[in-house]
Amino acid sequence: FAERFHIHRSEFDNYLRWVSTELPSTRFGHRVDTVAWDPGQGVFAVEFSRLGPDGETLTSGLTHARNLALGVGTAPHVPESLRELVRDPAAVVLHSADYLAQRDRLLAARHITVVGSGQSGAEVLLDLLRSRPEGAEGLTWLARTPAFAPMEYSKIGLEQFTPDYTRYFHGLPQATRDRLLPRQWQLYKGVSGDTLGDIHDELYRRSLG
């Protein structure tokens, strides 16, 4: 029996889809418009809109909750200087969030540049590397970070995610937090050791000829 402490992404996706079908209160295609505390009832008043396929508002609603959990995630960020190229259908410039939809188009290109040393960039590079012919990979990997470094995943490193450290960090002066945060980039911008190992192994295998 092989010990494995991380599940596959497809397994995680399947689990979330199963949970969403088992929870009748789960609502997709909705936008939260306002959240306000109602001191009289001791609850949050949440106004929301149900959206159509084109993002238009179909209906509006109001619900109340004693507790509120914020998990909005992040939106793909494209630098201002590249946004016109992303919108240009003739230019193959895209965010990694659109990689799977554009993968076949990318594979037809003679040369591909992957920008970013995080997990997404590393996974895109690895998939492209495995899919390109040996000797004609035509891949360049660019990063702003000083190294293609592994994600900090040691026990002592993960102490920085504990409630105690979080309270300590947010109690520091703003100038101190601004100075410390960039130095902690391996906590959130690194690459899993397995992915870095797979990239190295693939490059090494190809170097054998």
Q: What do these coordinates show?
A:
The longest helix has 15 residues. The chain is globular. With 209 residues, it is of the alpha+beta class. The protein is built from 7 helices and 5 strands. It has a 3-stranded antiparallel β-sheet, with no helix packed on it. The chain has a two-stranded parallel sheet with strand order 4-5. The protein folds into 3 domains: 38 residues, no CATH class; 78 residues, no CATH class; 33 residues, no CATH class. Helix 4 runs parallel beside helix 7.
Rg: 22 Å
Structural class: alpha+beta
Q: Termini, distance in Å?
A: 35 Å
Number of helices: 7
Overall number of strands: 5
**What form results from the Cα inertia axes?**
globular
Offer a quick outline of the entry.
The protein has 209 residues and is an alpha+beta fold. It is 34% helix and 17% strand.
Write the layout of secondary structure elements.
Elements: H1 9-22, E1 30-38, E2 43-51, E3 57-65, H2 83-87, H3 99-107, E4 112-115, H4 119-131, E5 139-142, H5 163-170, H6 174-180, H7 193-207
Parallel strand pairs: 4-5
Antiparallel strand pairs: 1-2, 2-3
Helix pairs in contact: 4-7
Task: Offer a few descriptive terms.
two-stranded parallel ribbon, 209 residues, alpha+beta, 3-stranded antiparallel β-sheet, 3 domains
